[in-house]
Design brief:
By secondary structure, this protein is α+β, with helices and mostly antiparallel strands. 18% of the residues lie in helices and 8% in strands. Bound molecules: zinc ion (2 copies). The site of one zinc ion has 7 residues, from loops.
């Protein structure tokens, strides 16, 4: 199973195409832009409480057979948070000071 490469930030809904270096993911592939991770989420995933890492960029060139953005295209299913801004802020407030490896 490859990363889904989700097409948007779950918080602000900006586009995050496969080559976008602003994309951040948690271990469950919840996907946000770097700006929202820093300013709104404080490195706390609103869905699972985990931290974020830059999403790896899938090569556009098929360096190996069958492996490229064209051969393994990104997901086209836009995902949106089911929590309110207040609920998200409350969770970040509780968890942000705990390092991800200790959560
Ligand atoms: Zn965003
Ligand atoms: Zn998550």
């Amino acid at each position: 199973m490859a990363l889904a490469l989700r097409p948007n930030c779950e918080y602000c809904d900006c586009d995050l195409p496969p080559e976008d270096s602003r994309a951040r993911i948690c271990s469950y592939e919840c996907t946000f832009c770097a700006d929202c991770v820093e300013r709104h989420l404080r490195n706390v995933c609103p869905n699972c409480g985990g931290g974020f890492t830059p999403r790896p960029i899938r090569p556009r060139t098929e360096w190996r057979p069958g492996l490229s953005v064209a051969k393994r295209p990104p997901s086209d299913q836009r995902i949106h948070l089911s929590y309110s801004e207040a609920e998200i802020a409350a969770l970040s407030e509780r968890i942000a000071a705990i390092a991800p490896e200790r959560r």
